[in-house]
Sequence to fold (494 residues):
Amino acid sequence: MSVSTPMLVTFVVYILGMVLIGFIAYRATKSFDDYILGGRSLGSVVTALSAGASDMSGWLLMGLPGAIFLSGISESWIAIGLIIGAWLNWRIVAGRLRVQTEHHDNALTLPDFFSSRFEDKSKLLRVISAVVILIFFTIYCASGVVAGARLFESTFGMDYQTALWVGAAATILYTLVGGFLAVSWTDTVQASLMIFALILTPVMVIIAVGGLDHSLAVIEAKSLENLDMLKGLNFVAVISLLGWGLGYFGQPHILARFMAADSHHTIRNARRISMTWMILCLGGAVAVGFFGIAYFQNHPDQAAGVSQNGERVFIELARILFNPWIAGILLSAILAAVMSTLSCQLLVCSSALTEDLYKGFLRKNASQKELVWIGRLMVLVIALIAIALAANPENRVLGLVSYAWAGFGAAFGPVVLFGVCWKRMTRNGALAGMVIGALTVLLWKDYGYAELYEIIPGFAFASIAIVVFSLLGRGPSEAAQQRFAAAEAQYQSK
Fold:
C-alpha cells in the first residue's frame, strides 16, 4: 500500500461522512427558516462547537502555525487578541442578539435584523449590509478554497487547479443540500477533530525533538528572537495584532450561531465550552508552529516543503511523524477547518442574496420551498466566484482572511455592539457606522498608515459615526424603544 493510499481512504471516508450528514439534515429542512437558522433549535454544545469551528477556518491549522514558524512566538499576539475578543463577544453580544432578533420580526439574517431594529423603511440598511456581506465573504470564501487546495496539493501531489475543485466540491455539496443544520452538525464533528489534531501533534513534535527543554534549547540556539514576544514589534504592531479580537463583533457566520441557539439561557454553557475549545486549539496551533522550528532545525533534509511555504508546517509534521492512517486523520482536521468555515460563509452569502435581496425586492410572496431552492442556487453561485478568486496559486490564506475579517469587524461590529446595547441608536447612526467602517477598511489598506491593521481605525471611526449621527437626528420611535426594552428585560431574566 503506497503512502498516500491510507490518507486517501481516510479523506474519502471523512468526506462521505460529512455529505451523509448533509443528506440527513436535508430531511429535517422543511422551511427557509430551517435552511438558514435550523429553526433556532441548537443546544449549548452544538452552538459552542459550531461557533468555534465556523470561526477558525484553515487559518487555524495553516495560517497561524505558519506565521509562528516563520517569525517566532511574537505572532501569538493574534491568538491573545482573538481569545479576548471572542470572550467579550460571547459575554456582551451573544445572548442579547439571540433575544433581540426574536423581538424584531424574528429576523433570520443580520440585514434583516438591522432593517427591523432601526425601522428602516427605505431598505438602504438591508441593501448595503447585504452588499458588504457579499463583498467580504466572497474574499473570505476564497481563503477557504485556497486552504483546501493547498491541503490536497501537498497531500496527494495534485496540481493547484485540480486541488482547487476537489477541495471545494464536498463542502459545496453538503451545504447545498442540508443548509444550516448540516453545517452546524458537521461543525460539531469537525471541531472535535480539530482539537484532537492540535493537542496530539505538538506533543509528538516535542517528543521527536527530544523533550520540552531540548526543543526550547534548539529554538533558542537557532535564534534567541524566536522566544521574544516583542521581536520586531513596536506598540502599533502589538495593538494591530491584538486588534484582531475586535473582528468578532461583526462576523455574520459567528453571529448566526448565537441567533440559532434554542434560547438565550443556552448561551452561558455554550460560552464556557466554546472558550475552552478555543484556548486549547489556539494554544495547539501556536505550539505546532513554535516547536516545528526545532524539528526542522534538527532535520533540515526534511524541510523542503516548509521552505517553499511556511503555512505547510502542520501538513509536513503530520506526514513525517505519524503513520499514514493517523496522518490521514490529522490532515482531515485541516479539511474540517476549511469545510466548517467555508460552508457557513456560503450559507450566510446565500441568505443575504435570498432573504435580503431576492425576497426583499423581487419576490416578496415567494413560497418557503422556492426560497430554499433559490438559497441552494445562491450557494453554488458564490462558491464558483470564490473558486475563481482563489485561482491564483500565489494567494496566502492569512492575507485573504485578515482583509475580510477587518471588513466585517469594522462594518458590522460597532453596529451590532451598539445595536444590542444602546436603545438610543438610530437608523442614520447604523447606516453611517456601516458605510464609514467598510470604506475605512477598503481605503486604509492602500492609503492609510500601513503598520496599523485597518480594523482598528475602521472600528473606531464607525463607532464615532454611530454615536454622532444617532444623537444629531431624531431619536428612535417609542415602539422601537419598547421592543428594545422588552428584549433587554427578557435577556436579564433568569
Observations:
- The chain has a mean pLDDT of 82.
- The longest helix spans residues 160-209.
- The two ends are 59 Å apart (CA to CA).
- Residues 3 and 221 are 34 Å apart (CA to CA).
